[in-house]
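Much of our argument rests on the idea that a fold can be written as discrete symbols. In the encoding step, the backbone of a single protein was reduced to a row of integers, each denoting a local shape. We regard such an encoding as a compact summary of how the chain folds. The record that follows shows the chain in one-letter code together with its fold in token form:
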Amino acid sequence: MPQPVPRPMLASLQAAPLDSPRFAYEPKYDGIRALAAVAAGGGPGSVRIWSRLGNEKTAQFPEIVRALTGFARGLRADVLLDGEIVALDERGEPAGFQRLQGRIHLAAEADIDGRAVTQPVAYVAFDVLRDGGLDVRALPLTARRARLERIFGNTGTRVLRLSDFHAGDGRRLYREALERGWEGIVAKSLESPYRSGRRSDAWRKIKILRRQDCVVGGFTEGRGSRAHFGALPPGAPRESVDPWRPRVEFPEGARRLATTWDDPSSRLIMAFPGATVGGDDDFALDLVATFMRANPTTHVILEGHADPRGSHAYNDEFALKRAQAVATFLIGRGVPPAQIDDVTSIGKRRPISTAPPEFFQDRRVELIFLSAP
């Protein structure tokens, strides 16, 4: 009878030194944690893969299964490995989790095979739990690592890899993580056993936190179960010699118009395309109100853009009424009136945004300019 698959050991966030003879240091791979059971001989069904939560992943990564099946032909005994399924970048190096997102929910064989070509993956092993009939979890990490290197050190394919392992000093690995934009590194006690299903301070995540001031530049269309919006894309300030040219860059695909500086010396202006008050898209305006209530230093300029006649000419009166309706909506949602700096229309002030003519054919869109001092 097959033995039950254990849950993987987990790392804690307890602080760890970057150089200590008690620890070994590995990259914190940003992928899918996976246990791989490999039966010696490599026959049909000789490979099975499970996620951290015990979900079967075998069918989702056929290239890893094929590689492990070939590897199994040279095995003398069955093994159970712990590792990570990682996406690969253009250089064949482990990349971020976002590259895996297009694969993790695929079910159709044709879709899976197609993504295997356009988004390759690899399996990086960093521990061994069973070696033949022997459960090795009680052994210290040093002994388990020696077994893993003997078993998995030469697989003959880049689809199967052994994790980087630095005993006693993780400073160089940490610098590499900074340079290459990794999520962080993991410090592991060299004397620790493998504690299945437990988050132990014998394994410690050393996370690299990156911070940047951004503005929210709109929203992407919702898909699937996300009926209202998909994501809120942030924009990052960039240098510009012209104060009237956009100074914030946003990801492609966001619903937005343009961004610029209203006063280059004082505050940043950004565009948030909302919707007609009372329409189905009030949810977007609720997000603005929630953000402003939580950030009292944030102010808003409401500038109406509208053309009910269907031409490309502005109807300034109608645009101003739209902006006033948005102001009333925000105040009704608890935004202090003092945070609304101005309610105006594009015809009553120097234009601070540019938009393609086809934009004005849509009567349901407002411009909301959020500003931060």
User: Anything to note?
Assistant: Residues 27-167 form a domain with the D-amino Acid Aminotransferase; Chain A, domain 1 fold (CATH 3.30.470.30). The chain has two domains: 27-167, 215-372.
